[in-house]
Specification:
Strand order of the largest sheet: 5-4-8-9-1-2-3-7-6
Shape: globular
Oligomer: single chain
CATH architecture: Sandwich
Structural class: mainly beta
Number of helices: 2
CATH class: Mainly Beta
């Protein structure tokens, strides 16, 4: 077993365990787990939504980006109406002004997005967060998480 990968996975698991659930103690936050798709099996991530006045900040922490994804890693982020199992035909929000990621000390990729709607929008309905590779990496969904 690769020690570097094991340590990265352990670090992400600890991060997810500490922040798991919908909401937590701060009513300004909403946190969900992102699960790897068939293109990225056994990988985990986290999406953390925070109130920023009339907008929402979305912080994404992603472990296990497939080795075939071009480096430096660039990923697209979408929020679909529905669920991961049954998403809407078109995204409700396309969050791709910035697609760059940065690598944290624990080998976790991180992205931050600003969504031009209040946090309550995501608390009131069913949505799915989808992380997708860029077109030059075949536009494949590699993570998904349900907001329900």
């Amino acid at each position: 077993m690769n020690t570097k990968i094991s340590c990265a996975g352990l670090g992400l698991a600890v991060l997810l365990a500490g922040c798991a659930g919908s909401g937590g103690s701060n009513s300004n936050d909403l946190t969900i787990t992102l699960k790897g798709t068939i293109q990225n099996v056994a990988s985990l991530g986290q999406a953390s939504f925070s109130r920023e006045d009339t907008k929402t900040q979305l912080n994404l922490y992603i472990g296990g980006v497939p080795t075939w994804v071009t480096r430096p890693v660039q990923l697209q982020t979408f929020i679909y109406p529905g669920t991961c199992a049954n998403p809407g035909a078109e995204p409700a929000y396309s969050l791709n002004d910035v697609v760059s990621t940065f690598l944290t000390a624990g080998s976790t990729w991180q992205m931050t997005k600003i969504i031009p709607v209040p946090l309550e929008t995501f608390r009131s309905g069913k949505y799915a967060v989808v992380i997708r590779t860029m077109p030059f990496d075949r536009s494949l969904d590699i993570f998904c998480g349900d907001l329900n």
